[in-house]
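We modelled the chain as a single entity of 224 amino acids. Its sequence is:
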Amino acid sequence: MMIFTNEWDELFKKNTHISKWPWSDLVSYVNRYAKPTGSDYKVLELGCGSGANIPFFLSFENVKYYSVEGSQTMVRLLKKKFPSIKNNIILGDFTKELPFDLEFDLIFDRAAVSHNSTKSIISCLDIVNKKLKRDGKFVGIDWFSTEHSDFKYGDNIKDVFTKKDFKSGVFANVGCVHFSNLEHLKTLFKSFTFLALEHKLLKSEIPNNSQCLAFWNFVAKKSG
């Protein structure tokens, strides 16, 4: 089997960056803006990682969950952990292909797409647009903002919004990290309509280390 995210596969092998609980912002956004309706609601996660969000979606009787993940290690583990959906968890590169002959009601990502270059993200969103049903929604959680303290670190690769080779901090050894400002997000999602867009900034007061963690959360609807 091919590995599409070598850096993340190595991190997962070392049992790091392992999340066990569904991300609270994702749960909130889905319940507020994209709560599953109907008898056959199809959901696709881009980069499921350790599978933290899977139990949340399996708790809905009418949801069919799918995912494309780039780590061979995680795909193998998740197929064993969730045997009822083992055929729905695919090893692949979601910036090049979504290998399901389906249209989805909801496609979502929690800080996976943002570990790619601008060019790859544009490619991914073009594919997402084609795979969404009419009025289908894309939910993005924790896309990194240019207001993030670490944006000034790392080396630029290919474009001004994408950094790599961070020497320390949360982005060390994770490969590409893409940061967005508001205008850049609007450009990336020119084929979508934003239904909600929030800028989340977390500043450390104690200890006062001048660190700011900054992210974007949003819901975008397929236009047309």
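As a brief sanity check on the tokenised model: The longest helix spans residues 118-131. The radius of gyration is 17 Å.
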